[in-house]
Design brief:
This protein is an alpha+beta fold. It has a single domain, classed as SH3 type barrels, CATH 2.30.30. Helix content is about 20%, strand content about 30%. The chain is built from two helices and seven strands, in the order H-E-H-E-E-E-E-E-E. A four-stranded antiparallel beta sheet has the order 2-1-6-7, with no helix packed on it. A three-stranded antiparallel beta sheet has the order 3-4-5, covered by helices on one side. The radius of gyration is 22 Å and the shape is globular. The termini are far apart.
Length: about 150
């Protein structure tokens, strides 16, 4: 065991989990009322995916707003994906939760500050493979029939 408890790291992890849960709820129900979200994220964190023109324009950090129109909000274990409109064109982004520097909901006067983590995110586990039935075999149904 370590010699001291890192409360800041525990709080950061808890707030990221809360944010993940909030986004999952929004992906199912949409944003209620006048709520809208502002994210500032570090574009250099491994796992950030965005179009090349955005990388050139925002090499260090970027601010995005989720408000009136967004699409394809997908929440994964360590990141979220979203399509937002930039100059009238839908662009897809993938943002690891570790890349988020600030999250705010101005309507609720709520804001969180995070310390970005520049480690590569662990990949989501692969779904379990469903075994394929052997082809060409004959299955006897006798074992499944009720005794007469």
């Amino acid at each position: 065991m370590t010699e001291k408890i890192d409360y800041n790291q525990l709080i950061q992890r808890a707030f990221r989990e809360m944010l993940k849960g909030l986004l999952a709820k929004v992906s199912e129900e949409g944003l209620p009322g006048e709520h809208h979200f502002v994210f500032v994220f570090d574009t250099k964190v491994p796992g950030v995916q965005m179009p090349g023109w955005m990388v050139a324009k925002y090499p260090e950090e970027m601010t995005i707003v989720m408000q009136h129109w967004f699409d394809n909000l997908a929440i994964m274990n360590d990141r979220f994906g979203i399509t937002l409109s930039f100059n009238g064109v839908g662009e897809s982004l993938v943002i690891p939760f570790n890349a988020i520097k600030t999250f705010a909901d101005p309507h609720a006067k709520f804001q969180l500050a995070f310390e970005p983590i520049h480690e590569a995110p662990e990949p989501d586990p692969e779904p379990e493979a469903v075994p394929k039935p052997e082809s060409g075999g004959v299955v006897s149904l006798d074992a499944f029939r009720k005794g007469s």
